[in-house]
Amino acid sequence: MKTMASKRGILPGFGLTMGFSVLYLSLVVLIPLSALLLNSTGLTWGKFIDVATNARVLASFKVSFLTAAAAGLIDAVLGLLLAWVLVRYDFPGKNVFDAMIDLPFALPTAVAGISLTAIYAQNGWIGSLLDPLGIKVAFTPLGITMALMFIGIPFVVRTVQPVLQDLEADVEEAAATLGSGRVRTFLVIILPQLLPALLTGFALAFSRGIGEYGSVVFISGNMPMKTEIAPLLIMSKLEQFDYAGATAVALLLLLISFLLLLIINTLQHRFRKTAR
Amino acid sequence: MAGSLPLVPTQAKPQRSTTRNESSWVKWSLIGLAALVLIWMIVLPLIVVLTESLKKGWEVYVAAIVDPDALSALRLTLLVAVITVPLNTIFGVAAAWAITKFKFKGKQLLITLIDLPFAVSPVIGGLIYVLVYGEHGWFGPWLSDQDIQIIFALPGIVLATLFITFPFVARELIPLMEEQGQHEEEAAVTLGAKGWTVFWRITLPNIKWGLLYGVILCNARAMGEFGAVSVVSGHVRGETNTLPLHVEILYNEYQFSASFAVASLLLILALVTLILKGWFTRKSVH
């Protein structure tokens, strides 16, 4: 005990806190998650392939990944604007402005879901303006994208904001002294330094969007092959007591999202290297 | 999910040289544009909850909230939060202590595993508990022999909520305690203080605002979780319905005003969370 303590430092409590943390982590997260992998539902390889190649399953993945990617990209652009204004300018009401950015973190997703549906439905505040133009938002993939944009926007703002705050002024000033205009300075000097943070924000919004359920089910209309998202498919398989099918879709969803996040992380690593 | 991000001090740096400033019209157009984005994306959904909930008048609003099923949903939601938030808080403090005060192998792996619930869809967060405790799950037959019901009952809702809100407090404390280091604690121990005394007298006062910040975010998510709870709840009105699930039931029954009225309670929860969060952030910066 003495030798261990001296190796780790003089503070007490390692055994207690570490033991409790690992036990609790195992009980709440690891053991339940392993149920997915350890095949408790009689899911066979053949059934997994069946599910993975099923047209309705593939369509739901397409909807989930495309809408999450579109929402993440739009959030990256809008989030950069919000972060820029918050970091670089002073204006009345800035504190409230800043606090409101976190609303999507704090608002239960079901509330966001019914509210956005009311806004974009045919008779809603924005839906009724778009309807004469022939644009339908609620109950289309566009509506799903809107919901995911709402959920994802704080991720981008909150990752870009601190990086923007810490940017060194000297390079920017040097560029200005050498006659570079603001737009050019932004594109050549500032934007490359923000790219890793933007990518992180995108990745966070994107991965949250893939799994998101509450805000989407109300606005999506849930039509199979058209606006059915992958998490909803898991839900409906569960409601039909098809546990093996639900497990298969869940495994596939986890697998693809981890792969995508791995790619994004690798990209980010590259960006960081070239930025230096 | 806010827990995945560090505290952001939001004050602007003072004194910027003029070469870093845009002309005034560019500045104000950008501010105007950003304000439009904020109003469109965030303020509008907030206002619509309020207007929709009061559309049929104050009486319908009050009736929806004092409805026995709504009150029972409110009680269940509070009960779930009262159980899950303290458990995840104790875990968060313990994990942060182990991770930031000691060196050990596999630290990075442990941090990644703690973050895992953030990367998993809430629906999957519910599904895994069905696979473990459900009728056809690992412990299903044994549990039904003992006449213990977990899925479609309170324990299932608590477990799913524990999973979803698992990382919040730990995620907030780890970077904070990392930054603060351990010199103060080491000095106290050298002078003969016992472990718990060190924790209560030195560590806790140092981390209190960050801890409270993590706790209110954990609480907001615990009270508002929808997907995971929806999988394990069974949706029995007056029994296993939480507030967010009650919003859904009313909505699907086309009782829109009542649904938005219940939703407005959750909106108030969100606004209170934001106000407290701002307060804790300011306190932790100063």
Automatic annotation (TrEMBL), chain A:
Domain ABC transmembrane type-1: 61-264
Protein location: Membrane
Chief location bin: membrane
Keywords attached to this entry: Membrane, Sulfate transport, Transmembrane, Transmembrane helix, Transport
Topology of the protein relative to the lipid bilayer: Multi-pass membrane protein
Domain of life, source organism: Bacteria
Transmembrane portions of the chain: 12-38, 65-87, 99-121, 133-157, 186-206, 243-267
Oligomeric form and interacting partners: The complex is composed of two ATP-binding proteins (CysA), two transmembrane proteins (CysT and CysW) and a solute-binding protein (CysP).
Function: Part of the ABC transporter complex (TC 3.A.1.6.1) involved in sulfate/thiosulfate import.
PANTHER family assigned to the protein according to its UniProt record, in alphabetical order: SULFATE TRANSPORT SYSTEM PERMEASE PROTEIN, SULFATE TRANSPORT SYSTEM PERMEASE PROTEIN CYST
Family: Belongs to the binding-protein-dependent transport system permease family. CysTW subfamily.
Protein name in the entry: Sulfate transport system permease protein CysT
From TrEMBL, chain B:
Keywords tagged on the record: Membrane, Sulfate transport, Transmembrane, Transmembrane helix, Transport
Domain ABC transmembrane type-1: 74-277
Compartment list: Membrane
Superkingdom, taxonomy of origin: Bacteria
Membrane topology: Multi-pass membrane protein
Pfam families per record: BPD_transp_1 (PF00528)
Ranges in a coiled coil: none
Transmembrane segments: 25-50, 70-97, 109-130, 150-170, 211-236, 256-276
Subunit structure: The complex is composed of two ATP-binding proteins (CysA), two transmembrane proteins (CysT and CysW) and a solute-binding protein (CysP).
Chain's role: Part of the ABC transporter complex CysAWTP (TC 3.A.1.6.1) involved in sulfate/thiosulfate import. Probably responsible for the translocation of the substrate across the membrane.
Name of this chain's protein: Sulfate transport system permease protein
Native source organism of the sequence: Paenibacillus shirakamiensis
